[in-house]
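Subject: for your reference before the review

Hello V.,

The reviewers asked for a structural picture of the protein, and I figured it would be easier to keep everything in one thread rather than splitting it across files. Below is the amino acid sequence we used in the manuscript, unchanged from the supplementary table.
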Amino acid sequence: MKKFYTPVDLRSRADMTAYLENHFRYPTMNSWNQATSYACNLKVDRLGLSAGIVEKLLDMLDTYEFQEAMQDLRTRFGMEHDYLWQVGMNGRSGGYLVLYQGCQKPSGYRSYCRECGQRNYKSVSESGDVCGRCGSHSRVDYTTPPMEIITYPGRATDDGEDFEDWSLVQLRERVKLVQELDQLADAMVAEALELARTCTVETEEYFVPKTRKVLVPSA
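And here is what came back from the structure prediction:
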């Protein structure tokens, strides 16, 4: 099975530079935007797994539970880096784990409805506690206003970078960051294999309620 994490001698400028320069990269948006970043190829058929496991994972890819488990790992990565560094899936089939730049900033929301979750840019003291969506008297102010997570998919990271002028401290920090990306890729593969070992895929029918207008006899 393929492993992504690679140990690097953090005392060696040559080893750190070689690791960064030779790491796999992938476009942050499309191939034509000419911006790339560090990435890992997580396509199921490229992980060195048995044919049976590959078939089972391909069957699992579109299930909600599988996608949620993978997203939880990616979200944790962003949280650990205060969203200055984030990860996402890119590619036509979404098979590439890519390192993105980002940030978080105040969302501007000051209150919300406890009944339906509708958020509002005004406080309750400014506009009352009636929700504009559901009409209930359930609007309350946030104790801590929520933040908005921003991702910059068009930004490249170290694309064509010459590391010769980087200090050893800068190189170490970048290597550690990219190694964390590799470790995340390994964790996602491990989680996928655990789901394949403990779960099966079944097909279920579900019905989505819809509303429509109808004519009924007047009373």
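For the response letter, the relevant points are probably these. Residues 108-145 form one domain. The mean pLDDT is 95.

Happy to draft the paragraph if you're swamped.

O.
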